[in-house]
Amino acid sequence: MTSTHAFWLAGRQATGDDTFDVTSPWDGRTVGTVSIPTDAQVEEAVAAAYAVRESFSATPAHVRAAALVHVADRLVERTEEIAQLISGENGKPIKWARGEVGRAVSVFRFAAEEARRFNGGEAQRLDTDAGGVGRLALTRRFNRGVVLGIAPFNFPLNLCAHKVAPAIAVGAPIILKPAPATPLSGLILGELLAETDLPEGSWSVLPVANDKMPALVQDERLPVVSFTGSETVGYAILDSVPRKHCTLELGGNGAAVVLGDFSDEKDLDWAATRIATFSNYQGGQSCISVQRVIADASVYDRLVPKIVAAVEAQVTGDPSDAATDVGPLVSEDAAKRVESWVDEAVKAGAELLTGGKRDGASYAPTVLAALPADTTLSCEEVFGPVLSVQKVNGEAEAFEAVNSSKYGLQAGLFTHDIQAAFRGHRALEVGGVIVGDVPSYRADQMPYGGVKQSGIGREGVRYAMDDYTYERVMVLTGIDL
User: Fold this and answer.
1) Which of 38, 29, 33 is CA-nearest to residue 9?
2) Which of 1, 60, 96, 411 has the least C-beta neighbours within 10 A?
3) How far apart are CA 389 and CA 258, in angstroms?
4) C-alpha distance across the termini of the chain, in Å
5) Closest-CA residue to 34 (of 187, 246, 257)
6) What is the CA radius of gyration of the chain?
7) Residues of 19-44 as b/e, b for ≥16 C-beta within 10 angstroms?
8) Percent of the chain beyond pLDDT 70?
9) Secondary-structure percent of the chain, ordered helix, strand, coil, rounded to 5
10) Among 58, 98, 56, which Cα is nearest to 79's?
11) 481, 457, 414: which is closest to 134 by C-alpha?
């Protein structure tokens, strides 16, 4: 019999009146049963976070850093257990789930380091102007207040970590809402946070339904909203609270550009392997998975067969098997949507090179060529194991093809030409350019986010800390410099 998972209300375990089951997208089994907070309990959590905001902000840095280190250490100790939980609720192959736990460990460790050195302040002498003689400006950063962190299903542990760890590092209370499909990983973080000395009220993990979110988003006691998810929901949040500080990490349809100088067999083998792996890892359910390959005409005909072969070599099946590369999507409905988009593209004239088949919640790794520009698959984020290949003539046409998308999260640029790399960095309308690799590379300490319809603000521990805080200047008068 599956036990019921309590949620975390102001640092303590609590249960509500109702529950819901979390099921595996692979085999439909019940992975866990989760208690749902009542409206009164949600109000209690928000009130507690708001009440503790000033005292938590004043908590010594070493206390916050110690709590973050503790969570990192406990994640290491429980890696296999948590990886199995991620795989169960998300359908993620176990090897990728283990990697996700390792990334979350790094996030908390980075946050502990940043907590110790953050906000040392910057001094600026003002006597550079005659009116500023005897004056010194000291600028420090202070948190904006309670953070509402809304996490998605695709990285159910690590993207919760990217909300929670920076908030604790800057002394901002946080209300974390994990995704309804995958709440168990977020609740595990609650277990580990409860083992620390963080003050009551400074954090809650509330697995509330999505239809409860508008009220939380509108609550004036929650001045910061950090959301990772779909473009539609993200911009609906922003439009509903234009005076709040929102960080939105939204979608993308990541492009991998292969320029003509990246042309010997070793180069093309590397590009094909990386493209195949990272168009399909997490079942393609990553904002920076490879969705588009834009290859120079001089390498296209040799590259595409290598990509198809590498995609067909991806091992699909049971996510609990360590050999599996590609598991199911998060639900059968998600797989049906991907299926409908591919079918639409093929009917419109796209050439199906491999894949194109659905089995329940699983969709076969798929490659398309000659994708018409007006198809849904061309314009939107597929969030599934599907990529298209496109032939272009030269660097300028390749960069134009990348920029033709409404999204701008990250792009990969396969080239050996350092000047082309710098031209790409300048010309490509994205938040990150990954040279020599796919757009799917992300280090958790680097700035991560997009432009255009891919969102606003940046994650990556230090950069999220900046987003959760603002500069406040103090001018000292009568200072003998």
Assistant:
1) 38
2) 1
3) 11
4) 72
5) 187
6) 24
7) eeebbbbbeeeebbebbbbeeebbeb
8) 100
9) 40, 25, 35
10) 98
11) 481
- What six digits make up the tokens of 2? 């599956």
Which residue in 404, 407, 327, 325 sits closest to 362, CA to CA? 327
- CATH 3.40.309.10 for the 255-443 domain, yes or no: yes
Residues identified as active-site: 249, 287
Which DSSP string corresponds to 376-417? Answer: HHHHS---SSEEEEEEESSHHHHHHHHHTSSEESEEEEE-S-
Q: What is the pLDDT of residues 397-451, one digit of tens each?
A: 999 999 999 999 999 999 999 999 999 999 999 999 999 999 999 999 999 999 9
CA 160, distance to chain mean position in Å, is 9
Question: pLDDT, tens digit, for every residue of 136-169?
Answer: 999 999 999 999 999 999 999 999 999 999 999 9
Name the phi and psi angles at 177, rounded to 5: -110, 105
Beta strand pairing status for 358-359 and 410-414?
unpaired
Per-residue confidence (pLDDT) for residue 4, from 0 to 100: 87
Q: Are 256 and 290 in contact (CB under 8 A)?
A: yes
pLDDT confidence bin for 2, thresholds 50/70/90: low
Q: Which of 335, 110, 74 is nearest to 193 (CA)?
A: 74
CA distance linking residue 146 with residue 49, whole number of Å? 7
Residues of the chain with CATH 3.40.605.10: 4-250+455-473
- Distance in angstroms (rounded) separating the CA atoms of residues 247 and 334: 26
CATH number of 4-250+455-473: 3.40.605.10
Does residue 266 contact residue 476 with C-beta atoms inside 8 Å?
no
Interval 449-478: pLDDT, tens: 999 999 999 999 999 999 999 999 999 999
pTM for the full model?
Answer: 0.96
What residue spans in the chain does CATH classification 3.40.309.10 cover?
255-443
Which residue from 284, 278, 323, 274 is spatially nearest to 93, judged by alpha carbons?
323
